[in-house]
Amino acid sequence: MNMANKNDKSRRRFLQKLGIAGASTVAGSALLLQGCSDSNKASGNKVKVLTADNKLVEVDVAHLKPGDKIQDLKYLQKRGREGIPGKKFVMVVDLAKCKNARKCMKACQSAHQLKPEMHHLNVLEMEDPVKKTSYWMPKTCQHCDNPPCVSVCPVDATFKRQDGIVLIDNERCIGCRFCVAACPYSARTFNWTEPKNSDKMADVTYDMELNVPQKKGTVTKCAFSADQLRHGKLPYCVSACPNGVYYFGDQNEDLVTNGTTKKTVRLSHLLEENAAYTLMPELGTQPSVYYLPPRESEG
Amino acid sequence: MNETIAKGHLSEEQIDKDLLKNVNWGGKFKLWMGFLTVSLIICLYYYYQQLQNGLGVTGLHDYVSWGIYISNFVFFVATSLIGMLVSSVLGMMKVEWVRPVARIAELVALAFAMVAGLIIITDMGRPDRLLNVFIHGRVQSPIVWDIAVVVTYVVISGLLLYIPMLPDIALCRDKLNNVPKWQQKMYRSLSLGWNNTAKQFRLMNRYTRMLLILIIPIALSIHTVTSWLFAMTLRSGWDSPIFGPYFVSGAFVAGCAAVIIAMFFFRNNYKLKEYITADHFDRMGKLLVLVALVYVYFNINEIIVPGYKANTADAKHVHEMLYGHDSVMFWLVQLGGLVIPFLLILFKPMRKPLPLTIIAVVILAGAWFKRVLIVVPTQLAPYYPIQNVPEGWTGYSPTTPEVAITVASFILVVMIITVLAKLFPVVPIWEVKEDMNHKNNK
């Protein structure tokens, strides 16, 4: 997986702020940040953005306007369902390295506009019943290849994409919470009340790859930061980790990149050499998240 | 020997008079409906709150995301199954004593099935998107199966109430001259030109028989599919292959109790002692013993099999039930709401109308809490620990709006039964007459 360079980073931060991250930068897309009209006062705050013909240009923040909203939503919905061709995303979590810094949780909650009690990613304190020790275990959606949540959804609001990511379309979700009941990993959370910042997010076009804006009465969960992956970047949690816990990459390429060290390693070697396992493989869900066991000394 | 139809001494005119006299809109009815309407409006205010503020007004959270709404839904579907048992299974076996109470069973079935559908809507986070189920419905989801069978069951139950009632509707049309115009008109159109010809009876019997057969698989499916909402998941406590028959057997217990209560109510308020006799209660009591025994058997299976093997998750679940967090409710429901009542009904004096009705109320309440025990504890024992969430999320207690909305569903059932029992005779008049003539000719 390609690493984010400096330009990418500054661009990302800005777009995160705008909350239209995926929408505004995609190359070759129908949607555009429309024109820089001179009547607007320049703020002096410049950012780099990608244009539709894949050119990197620098524009003033004050000159940015989101494109046509309805078209954007349609486009985003279609893109969100299709996924990224040729990819099969996987995550590897090295439990031996997790020190419960919780930077991943923070990054996740801020990217997805989650209230403090809502977790796409939850760092759990797990007891080892045999050794009587405990270890920290970040738990995300497992993006199962045989996802029980997808089977039970009555309206196809949650679905599995060609790149292995399980997403939710909160424009379609009816809020029956059958998926919440069906998920053995308790990976899903629900907008029981009006979501955080809902008034500020009211005009933001919904991007299911980010699942923002959140909507009251719908389910939400980890999306493997599909919006980031589209730009060749690592998920929010992965790049936020200070301890090198997370690797993320493409199973088809057999390569994963550590979010902290940015080192890219061969997936199959990493899994083999470290006795990797998946959560409750006996259930037959076939998770896309692998765990490397916690080290005894650090237990 | 049939003592239940102990009315050989009654003339046809007397029967008409006795059974039609409830078809009126008296002051008592208006008072009762007024009370129900006011209560319903109060409850609906809470639903309005829920619509405004989201499901957050309930005690539900990410770890118990199905609470008393879903438990109540399961209870309603369960109770509605009795129509099938009484009118179809017993009816087709030519069990004569059920004939006068079969319509009451159908009323109970129809009312509970209709409201069950509404309860599901109150549990939805986005009821405004209900149509998505039809626009985007996917057949592999048990919810879609459930909607399909519940709707079918409501339709067939409605027909099963309606078609055998044709002669009685015609009687209402002919005899009730002092009812409002719209009501006379309604009888006229609903009676489909019925005039008691042999051909009409032949047709009616044929269609009724068809429906009686049809309703058996559909009734079995609605409750089996409802059980599958749980059994199709990988959660311990739900992940059980006997959930279908377990639910169906429990359904008959709840349904029998509900019918006994309704029988008692109609017998006393409508002065139907000659028609719904002590013997009916005795026999319903015996039926209740039978279905309760079957249910006890399934309950034993549900606890002993996973408890004996005690794999990690199941052991935890069974332990919580028997001695832990849920044990008080568990033993109250199992002993107080099932075992003790059914042991009591073994004694004949306990099958008299009043004691049996009291026992039925206890059983019905137990049946309701039993559904909560099926739905909630499993969710409180997930495979991964409940952490980094508000303290209350390790438990579940329903809030006032949640309780009020649940009460609303019961009010609706009572309203539906009340109105139908005021529009039509609750005891099938033509069948009572037929039985009587049959007996007199012997």
Automatic annotation (TrEMBL), chain A:
Q: CDD domains from the xrefs?
A: PsrB (cd10551)
Question: What are the alphabetically sorted keywords of the record?
Answer: 4Fe-4S, Iron, Iron-sulfur, Metal-binding
Per its UniProt record, what Gene3D superfamilies does this chain match?
Answer: 3.30.70.20
Q: Which InterPro entries match?
A: 4Fe4S_Fe-S-bd, 4Fe4S_Fe_S_CS, ET_IronSulfur_Cluster-Binding, TAT_signal, TAT_signal_bac_arc
- List, alphabetically, the PROSITE patterns matched: 4FE4S_FER_1, 4FE4S_FER_2, TAT
Instruction: Please give one Pfam family short name.
Output: Fer4_11
Q: Which residues form the 4Fe-4S ferredoxin-type domain?
A: 132-163, 164-193
Q: Which GO terms describe its molecular function?
A: 4 iron, 4 sulfur cluster binding; metal ion binding
Signal sequence region: none
The record, for NCBIfam families, names: TAT_signal_seq
Which PANTHER family is this protein grouped with? PROTEIN NRFC (PTHR43177), PROTEIN NRFC HOMOLOG (PTHR43177:SF3)
Name this polypeptide is given: Hydrogenase
Please name the source species: Marinifilum breve
From TrEMBL, chain B:
InterPro entries recorded: NrfD-like
Which Pfam families does this UniProt record tie to the protein? NrfD
Family as reported in the entry's similarity comment: Belongs to the NrfD family.
Q: Does the keyword Transmembrane apply?
A: yes
| The UniProt record lists the keyword Cell membrane | yes
What membrane topology does the UniProt entry give?
Multi-pass membrane protein
Q: Which organism is it from?
A: Marinifilum breve
Q: What is its main location?
A: membrane
Q: Provide the leader sequence positions.
A: none
Span-the-membrane segments of this chain are 29-48, 68-92, 104-122, 142-163, 210-231, 243-266, 287-308, 328-347, 354-374, 403-424
GO CC annotation: what is one? plasma membrane
Keywords, ordered alphabetically: Cell membrane, Membrane, Transmembrane, Transmembrane helix
Where would you find this protein in the cell?
A: Cell membrane
- The molecule here is called Polysulfide reductase
